[in-house]
Amino acid sequence: MNALVANTVVAVPVAAPPGQWIGAGGSMIMESDKQTGTIRKHYIGMVTMLDILAHIAGDDRVNGGGSGDGSSDLVQKMAVPVSNIIGHCLEGLSLWTLNPNTSILDCMEVLSKGIHRALVPLDSHMENLSGVELVESASSYRMLTQMDVLKFLKEHNSGTAAILSRSVEELGAINRNVYAITDRTRVIEAIKCMRAALLNAVPIVESGALEEEDHSQLVIGRGRKLIGTFSATDLRRCHVSEQRPWLSATALEFTESISPSPLYSASSEGVPPRELVTCRDDTTLAEVMDKAVNKHVHRVWVVDHQGSLAGLVSLTDMIRVLRAALLSA
To answer: What tens digit of pLDDT does each residue of 128-140 get?
Structure first.
C-alpha cells in the first residue's frame, strides 16, 4: 500500500519467481533477460486499492468491535504477503498484455469491456495485434490504462471533434443504475459494500427521511441529493498508520477531513483534493472527458438541476461510446 501511495497509482502488477505460481486466469506473462532469454519474473496478477480495502473488510474482526475504532487486527491484516489478496476483487485477476503495435481503436475495444489496464511488452514476440493476450515473454513492460487512452484522445482530437461535441445523453454514455451510500454510512461499511458489489467508488447521498433505512447497505442513488464521493483511492491519501481511527467514522466525514488534515499523505502531492465532479445530461462528451482527465477521476456523476443524482459516466462508458461513434462515422 505504501508503494501505491508513493507512486500515486491505484494498481500494480505482482511478480514472482518463475515456476512457483499459477498466473491469474491461467496467464503466462513472463519477464525475460533480453540477451539470454532466461525467465526472470512471472507476473501472477494485479493488486488494486480495492483488493486491499476488501482484505481489510474481509470479516467482522475489523468492524469497530473491541477497541471501538475498527482497528482490532488491522496491523496483522496489513502484514500478510501481497499474494494472499490477489483476486479479492475480480479486477485483480485481470492480467492481460497488448501488442505494442495494436491500434488505438483496438485498444479501445479491450478497454470498453471492463478491462481497466493492460501490460504492453516493449519487445513483444506475439503476432496478435487486435486483442489481449494471456501468454507473453518480454524483457520489460509498460502499463496502458483507460486514462492514458483518454488523455491521448483528448490531445489528438482532430478526428473526433464532431463526436466530442455531442452530449453524453445523446451518445448513450450515461449509466442510470447507480448505487450509493448515505451520509451516515461508516467507512468500514462502505468498504464492505464496495467489495460485495465490485465497485471502485460510490456516491454519497443525503439520508432519507425513513428511520428504518439501513445505512450499512447500498441504496438506490438516483433522485437523491448528491453530497460526496467515497472511492477506493481515498485511503491512498492516508498513511497506513493513521487509517485505523477512520474505519468507524462515516465515509462523508473521512472524505471531508482527509485532504486538509495532517493525515493527507505528503506522497500524494500533486493529487488534487477530493472534489465533487459532476455533469448534466446535456454536457458534451468533451467536457466530461476534460473533467475526468483534469480532476484525475474515473467517473463523473450526472446530476439534475437540483443537484440530485441522475446517473454516472465512467471511463469505460466514455471509451465505449467514442469507439462506437468512430466505427459508425
So the answer is: 555 666 678 888 8
